[in-house]
């Protein structure tokens, strides 16, 4: 299940806990739950977002084994951060310098590919209601899109590739085009359905947030 409400201590103590989690991440065999926990803390405590960005830049600068498993875990978390939070302008400039430097020093490497992906993500990220789901984190670690299944009345279910930045309106427009309904005078929207309720999904809502709520 996705992380629920948590109780926190002081920002200083939580920053220390996050630093310890980052140290653990380097050798973690299954880093996904730990990554989601770090992201959840940053969502709940926004002042720590810049701190984690700075720590990740530090950890991915002059790593003992460039491109090794531990180094890539840090890059993967940095990728997830870039699709969830925007750093403050000074930290963003610092981060972009780090991305440029990495691409210059290690062209065509996995680190350079993550750096390119992160730069593009930062240009689209506006903030999230939820942290990425476990599935989304797995896809981001591979720099791939997720497949979202939408059930359409009177038509087969449609599979749509979405990113962390895809809105409900964009998916609805794609489905309208696929189903040949572009000339229809009707209005179309996505609905989120659970065992307890059914409700429309706001046009600007990120589908990735909806999937996290399902998880």
From TrEMBL:
UniProt domain MyTH4: residue ranges: 1-141
GO terms classed as biological process: signal transduction
A Pfam family hit: MyTH4
Entry-linked SMART domains: MyTH4 (SM00139)
A GO cellular component entry from the record: cytoskeleton
Domain of life: Eukaryota
Ras-associating domain boundaries: 144-215
Domain (FERM) ranges: 146-215
Protein name per UniProt: PKHH3 protein
Organism in which the protein naturally occurs: Sapayoa aenigma (broad-billed sapayoa)
Gene: Plekhh3
